[in-house]
Amino acid sequence: MLLRYNYRVYPTPGQQEALARAFGCARVVFNDGLRVRQAARQNGEPYLSDGDLSKRVITQAKQTPERAWLSDASAVVLQQALADLNTAYRNFFTSLSGKRKGRTVAPPRFRSRKDNRQAIRFTKNSGFRMLDNGRLRLPKIGDLDVRWSRALPAAPSSVTIIRGAAGRYFASFVVTTSDEPLPPVDVDVGIDLGLTHFAVLSNGKKVAAPKFLRRAARKLRRLQQNLSRKQRGSANRTKAVVKVARAHARVADTRRDWQHKLSTRITRDSQAVYVEDLCVTGLARTRLAKSVHDAGWSQFVHMLEYKAARYGRTFARIGRFMPTSQRCSVCGRVDGPKPLSVRSWTCPCGAVHDRDINAARNVLAAGRAESLNACGAQVRPAPVPAPRREAGIHPDAVPCSTRSVEGISVL
């Protein structure tokens, strides 16, 4: 399994300038490659191969006065910029052909130096190394100071240096790890995600929604009002933009850390985890959009999925159209839709249900049924041979032209 490990990096002022040059070189190569591809298409020329494109926008461009400064960056960084362009085109074409699932992918766009996020990637053949003193050596950048919050489980295959909108630098390593199965437990859990309670488990446990964005709303409002008063293009406006970005980054980091801890605890304590496949994109268009984005359901479900695969657990999504909030988890009767204001209801069978706990139990039952079906279990009654008295034709039977079954004439 490929995993990504992020670490905070603290470059010196000189290294920040070198990284800024590398970011600019990679951005220019990407834009030049995109411009050449677009011009070839407009002129009716055949699709330019990757080798010819690299020769034109990197090798030959370095020999011109206008692009001679491309030599200031590592050649691997420039090649990886073209690899990103090829990946963007591949995703666009597969989306048009219908091979790629999900929303339609837009064609590649030109990168701007004003983008909040800048990144460059080094692969193994670039010669990056992790030194004994804990620093990360990058070609034409230098030795970067890295905060190793934890050890890498294996040698990384690549490293990406990222500069975020808040001005922070990160080193992102891609590592190939082996599965680490946990001891099996005899517990399955269904999870119903919500807004008042972030997660309600089928065992009756409720996890309150922390609402990190709502808690930071007052500070964010003050910073954004301060930003709106700054003149466009001024240095003070740039400083105010960084302050707003840092506040948002603090909210995102806090939410991510909390979700990591919760998903790890659920994966460790459960052998199988089942969740509902929510349409977050559709819910984000409603009046609850801000709360939906604040919850971060998609990120949490993704954490559960890859952690279950890594630790030898079972993970599955159930259909989003399954009436988990309408069905009684005791007798299976569907009681019809209910407004969100109804938090508890009584089934005609006599069972009194908490809306969220009942939905979580239905998610668990549906997940187990889907799991058994995927494993080849019999989900329909098996064919049973008819008794001898039913298989033959009785001598005194009524002719087929005149007999009827339940009032319906059979010809």
Structure at a glance:
With 411 residues, the chain is of the alpha+beta class. 40% of the residues lie in helices and 18% in strands.
Strand content: 15-25%
Largest sheet: 7 strands, antiparallel
Instruction: Give the fraction of residues assigned to helices.
Output: 25-40%
Radius of gyration: 30 Å
Nearest-integer average pLDDT: 87
The general outline is: elongated
Distance from first to last alpha carbon:
63 Å
Q: So how many helices?
A: 11
Which structural category do the helix and sheet elements fall into? alpha+beta
**What oligomeric arrangement do these chains adopt?**
single chain
SSE series: EHHHEEEEEEEEEHHHEHHHEEEHHEE
List low-confidence stretches.
376-395, 397-411
- Give the strand order, joined by hyphens, for the main sheet: 2-6-7-1-5-4-3
User: How many strand segments?
Assistant: 16
